[in-house]
């Protein structure tokens, strides 16, 4: 039976006074694929290490299933080896002097399991991961993708309650990454094992995550399903961090022409002198000058991303927006910009409203 | 467990008690390890009679004196003050010459294509490990024929040649790690090989050059065998060579020997203390030499 | 790495080193071999006399100072220089390896561990001739820390000047050399440890390994390249050992602590027999070569491209 993970009020301060995690609380459901997403230095790996027991929080508690594995206030600490978690490290951390078989068998041997039982389990997991023919090779003689599978096999072989993945795709080539993500996602669904993955790459997060938690400088920014993070970013940081190409964000006075022409309702801007305006490139388009739209502008730059074209449009007053190019305009040509969706944020960063046109 | 919670990271060793025991034992062994140094120093600063009667560890009576040092430094037969000067006269050129020459060679190894480079490199490794004993007899006769036996120059030449292989090995590894783009930029700007070497490579490799120099100096200073074989004149002997001769025929005079020992190891200890980072980096290169 | 084509100016980078090495290293090595075969390296000179051949090798091997069958049989010193060198390796190598690994591993958990490490390293900094004197000093009946410890632990009846008795002279020097040389092993292993990926050890922790398992199953196997270098260098050092013995016992008493390098020196300086001296040197080098080759192989494999 899959177990959930409950993180409550976790703080981590590294001496002398580096606050890595600030009052993190989250409930991870049994069988869920949960992603912790954040830029480097956000504390995401520290949180994962706290769950594994490699790091001890300064305050707070973590429970796996019904059992508290650490609770600083109550003086509870369960050693990593007694938590029954499997972990895949960023560089896979395979034991270089052991064959793939010995690597995978290592956790079982430590449990003094009989050799034939070990053999059965290793073969089973190796076949499930498609690495059965690699078992007598050493890590030095494997490709990155193969090493990753061995590392996953080693983490899974002891049938852990929770699987922890620390940036498992960051050492892989772009092409293999895509396959590896699918593979991990499918495997997780098949086994139904509670999985926590840490990454700095939103593409990773969106590809595999059932839910995503975004961390920044040790603070939770938002927790939600991928769609939520994209369509209703909790604050400017999320809006900026999530989505590719990045959201156009401008801090503008409420009297600014752009604010006016977007028709932001009175109630939203009330009490603020300035606002952040966020427009996703994919939620706005540059059209022919005569078409219906909100803003006039001039194309500064045209850029191809895959099959899509984006135009950087100078709309005057020092503002230029990157938007989908949906007409034949070239650099220098006038266009009309139509906006489908605008996110409005308070000067402090949190979202006030999302307007759809 | 409580301690682990406080320290913020689970300990591998386990209980705080074990850690405490470990700390105590480690420090006890550590102190024991330098006891001979303490002993020789304590012996050197008090009258030998006092040491024989009470032991160097005895706090009373304690009559500090520099007599042993004066006796050693101005010994009528083997004056260590002369020995120190001789050691410097030998060690300074025996450091500068091989470092300069080996830097050239090492650069060649690091950057030029050479048909038999690999074999030459293995040869260098081999020469680093051959015992001094294997070459000293012919060198002795060679220097004799060149009238360089029992001269500073002869010993300097031998030390320099002996130092070249390991310094080449060490600096070649160092040069290989330098970014080649800077050199390429200089070449594109019109610099010759020697200009690239002098204006770009040497300044960049300065830490490596210092490491090699520090180690080579310590090695030459500490050497005993070459000096023993090639210098006979008491006025030209280096300090390590004089030291065992202070022993005396029948009775070991530890008063004299202790101060002599302190004097002889002062220079390498100072170098180790002052250039610690360079020393340790060079040590790994030197350690290969033995 | 780029490779620039050879040219006359580029060759000149190699010339000075080449000349010095040829004259003062390569030529002497060849000449020593010739001398050991009773051949004068430069025709017309008369360093050695006698018919060319292997006669010197026979003489050395049958010299009791080189190999003393009777001593070996009765397990009493002197057993001959080459046996003493072998004993030296047999005791010194395992001890210094264990000391090196133990200190390197455990000092990580000791407050001020780096200070203790630099204490231990002092033996590598000082002239070995001083090292030899310090060993003699430490084993002295009245002055030495060894006997002080014995007395303190109620074993005072064992107190003696260890270096002047045939039974104990060699052993005290060997123990002393562990004291001096461990700075090398501790330093090498500490450097090796710090370059081990921390994640691999953490993976073992998560996998459920305890400290002992991690030490023996993960850390020590992963340090194998370091161990290879350390073993090779230690054996080379043990074979070439000279200064320590010269300073403390001069190979005595009665040859009980004689070693190959010292025997070579005795032939040269005391007896003026250059051919025999060259023969001992050549034998010493022959013994050293397999270790050197092992060491070269490990270096060429590890990183030299």
Give the SSE layout.
The complex is a heterotrimer of chains A (357), B (290) and C (305).
Chain A: E1 5-14, E2 18-28, E3 33-37, H1 44-52, E4 59-64, E5 67-71, E6 76-77, E7 85-88, H2 100-110, H3 115-128, H4 144-156, E8 162-166, H5 174-191, E9 194-199, H6 202-208, E10 211-216, E11 219-224, H7 226-231, H8 236-241, E12 248-253, H9 257-261, H10 266-269, E13 274-279, E14 284-287, E15 295-305, E16 308-314, E17 320-325, E18 334-339, E19 341-345, E20 351-356
Chain B: H1 2-7, H2 16-44, H3 48-54, H4 67-73, H5 80-111, H6 117-129, H7 133-145, H8 152-177, H9 180-188, H10 193-204, H11 206-222, H12 225-230, H13 239-242, H14 254-274, H15 276-287
Helix pairs in contact in B: 2-14, 4-14, 5-8, 5-11, 6-8, 8-11, 9-10, 11-14, 11-15
Chain C: H1 8-12, H2 15-36, H3 55-61, H4 69-74, H5 81-106, H6 113-125, H7 128-138, H8 145-152, H9 166-194, H10 198-207, H11 211-222, H12 224-240, H13 243-248, H14 260-270, H15 274-301
Helix pairs in contact in C: 2-15, 3-15, 5-9, 5-12, 6-9, 7-9, 9-12, 12-15, 14-15
Structural features, described:
The complex is a heterotrimer of chains A (about 350), B (about 290) and C (about 300). Chain A has 2 domains: about 5-235, P-loop containing nucleotide triphosphate hydrolases (Rossmann fold); about 235-355, Beta Barrel (OB fold (Dihydrolipoamide Acetyltransferase, E2P)). Helices cover about 25% and strands about 35% of the residues of chain A. Chain A is built from 10 helices and 20 strands. In chain A, strand 16 and strand 17 (about 320-325) form a beta hairpin. Chain B is built from 15 helices and no strands. Chain B folds into 2 domains: about 1-65, no CATH class; about 75-285, MetI-like (MetI-like fold), CATH 1.10.3720.10. The longest helix of chain B is centred in the first third of the chain and has 32 residues, at about 80-110. Chain C has about 300 residues and is mainly α. Chain C has 15 helices and no strands. The model of chain C has no long low-confidence stretch (mean pLDDT about 90). Chain C has 2 domains: about 1-55, no CATH class; about 65-300, MetI-like fold (Orthogonal Bundle). The termini of chain C are close together. In chain C, helix 5 (about 80-105) runs parallel beside helix 9 (about 165-195). Classes of the chains: A alpha+beta (about 350), B mainly alpha (about 290), C mainly alpha (about 300). At the A-B interface, loops of A face helix 1 of B.
């Amino acid at each position: 039976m899959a177990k959930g993970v409950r993180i409550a009020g976790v703080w981590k301060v590294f001496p002398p006074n580096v606050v890595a995690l600030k009052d993190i609380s989250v409930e991870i459901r049994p069988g869920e694929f949960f992603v912790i997403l954040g830029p480097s230095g956000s504390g995401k790996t520290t949180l994962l290490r706290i769950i594994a027991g490699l790091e001890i929080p300064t305050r707070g508690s973590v429970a796996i299933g019904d059992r508290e594995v650490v609770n600083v206030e109550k003086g509870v600490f369960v050693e990593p080896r007694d938590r029954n978690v499997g972990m895949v490290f960023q560089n896979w951390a395979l034991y270089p002097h052991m064959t793939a078989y010995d690597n995978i068998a290592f956790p079982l041997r430590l449990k003094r399991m009989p050799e034939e039982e070990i053999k059965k389990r290793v073969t089973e997991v190796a076949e499930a991961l498609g690495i059965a023919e690699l078992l007598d090779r050493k890590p030095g003689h494997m490709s990155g993708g193969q090493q990753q599978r061995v590392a996953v096999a080693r983490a899974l072989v002891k049938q852990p309650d929770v699987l922890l993945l620390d940036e498992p795709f960051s050492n892989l080539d772009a092409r293999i990454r895509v396959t590896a993500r699918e593979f991990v996602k499918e495997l997780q669904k098949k086994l139904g094992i509670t999985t926590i993955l840490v990454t700095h790459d939103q593409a990773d997060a969106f590809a595999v995550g059932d839910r995503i938690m975004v961390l920044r400088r040790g603070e939770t920014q938002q927790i939600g399903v991928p769609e939520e993070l994209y369509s209703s970013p909790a604050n400017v940081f999320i809006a900026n961090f999530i989505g590719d190409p990045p959201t156009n964000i401008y801090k503008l006075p409420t009297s600014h022409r752009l604010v006016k022409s977007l028709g932001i309702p009175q109630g939203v801007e009330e009490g603020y002198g300035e606002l952040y305006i966020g427009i996703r490139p994919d939620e706005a388009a540059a059209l022919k000058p005569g078409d219906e739209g909100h803003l006039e502008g001039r194309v500064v730059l045209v850029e191809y991303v895959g099959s899509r074209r984006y135009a950087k449009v100078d709309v005057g007053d020092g503002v230029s927006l990157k938007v989908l190019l949906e007409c034949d305009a070239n650099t220098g040509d006038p266009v009309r910009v139509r906006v489908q969706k605008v996110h409005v944020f308070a000067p402090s960063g949190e979202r006030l409203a999302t307007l759809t046109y | 467990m409580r301690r682990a919670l406080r320290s913020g990271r689970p300990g591998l060793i386990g209980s705080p008690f074990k850690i405490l025991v470990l700390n105590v034992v480690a420090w006890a062994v550590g102190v024991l390890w330098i006891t001979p140094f303490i002993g020789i120093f304590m012996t050197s600063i008090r009258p030998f009679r006092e040491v024989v009667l009470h032991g160097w560890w005895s706090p009373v009576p304690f009559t500090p004196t520099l007599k042993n040092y004066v006796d050693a430094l101005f010994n009528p037969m083997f004056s260590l003050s002369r020995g120190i000067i001789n050691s410097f006269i030998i060690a300074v050129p025996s450091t500068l010459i091989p470092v300069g020459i080996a830097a050239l060679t090492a650069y060649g190894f690091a950057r030029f294509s050479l048909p038999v480079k690999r074999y030459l490199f293995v040869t260098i490794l081999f020469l680093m490990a051959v015992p001094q004993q294997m070459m000293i007899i012919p060198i002795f006769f060679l220097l004799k024929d060149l009238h360089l036996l029992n001269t500073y120059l002869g010993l300097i030449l031998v030390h320099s040649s002996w130092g070249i292989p390991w310094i080449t090995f060490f600096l070649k590894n160092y040069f290989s790690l330098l970014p080649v783009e800077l050199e390429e930029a200089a070449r594109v700007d019109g610099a010759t090989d020697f200009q690239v070497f002098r204006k770009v490579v040497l300044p960049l490799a300065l830490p490596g050059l210092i490491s090699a120099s520090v180690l080579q100096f310590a090695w030459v200073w500490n050497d005993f065998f070459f000096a023993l074989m090639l210098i006979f004149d008491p006025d030209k002997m280096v300090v390590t060579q004089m030291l065992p001769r202070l022993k005396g025929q029948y009775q070991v005079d530890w008063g004299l020997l202790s101060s002599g020992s302190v004097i002889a190891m002062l220079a390498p200890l100072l170098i180790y203390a002052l250039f610690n980072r360079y020393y340790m980096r060079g040590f790994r290169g030197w350690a290969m030499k033995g | 790495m780029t490779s620039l084509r050879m040219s006359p100016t580029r060759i000149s980078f190699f010339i000075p080193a080449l000349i010095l090495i040829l004259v003062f290293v390569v030529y002497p090595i060849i000449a020593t071999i010739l001398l050991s075969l009773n051949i004068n390296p430069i025709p017309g000179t008369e360093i050695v006399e006698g018919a060319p051949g292997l006669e010197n090798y026979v003489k050395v091997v049958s010299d009791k100072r080189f190999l003393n069958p009777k001593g070996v049989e009765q397990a009493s010193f002197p057993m001959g220089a080459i046996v003493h060198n072998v004993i030296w390796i047999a005791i010194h190598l395992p001890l210094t390896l264990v000391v090196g690994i133990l200190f390197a591993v455990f000092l990580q958990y000791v407050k001020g561990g780096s200070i203790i490490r630099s204490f231990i390293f002092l033996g590598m900094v000082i002239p070995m001739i001083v090292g030899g004197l310090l060993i003699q000093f430490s084993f002295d009946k009245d002055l030495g820390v060894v006997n002080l410890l014995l007395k303190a632990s109620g074993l005072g009846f064992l107190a003696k000047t260890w270096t002047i008795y045939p039974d104990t002279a060699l052993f005290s020097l060997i123990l002393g050399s562990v004291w001096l040389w461990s700075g090398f092993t501790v330093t090498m292993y500490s450097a090796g440890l710090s370059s081990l990926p921390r994640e691999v050890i953490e993976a073992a922790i998560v996998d459920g390994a305890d400290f002992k398992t991690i030490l023996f199953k993960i850390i020590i196997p992963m340090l194998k390249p370091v161990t290879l270098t350390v073993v090779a260098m230690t054996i080379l050092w043990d074979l070439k050992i000279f200064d320590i013995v010269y300073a403390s016992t001069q190979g005595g008493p009665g040859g009980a602590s004689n070693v190959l390098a010292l025997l070579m020196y005795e032939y040269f300086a005391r007896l003026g027999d250059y051919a025999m001296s060259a023969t001992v040197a050549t034998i010493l080098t022959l013994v050293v070569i397999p270790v050197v080759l092992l060491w070269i192989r490990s270096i060429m494999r590890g990183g030299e491209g």
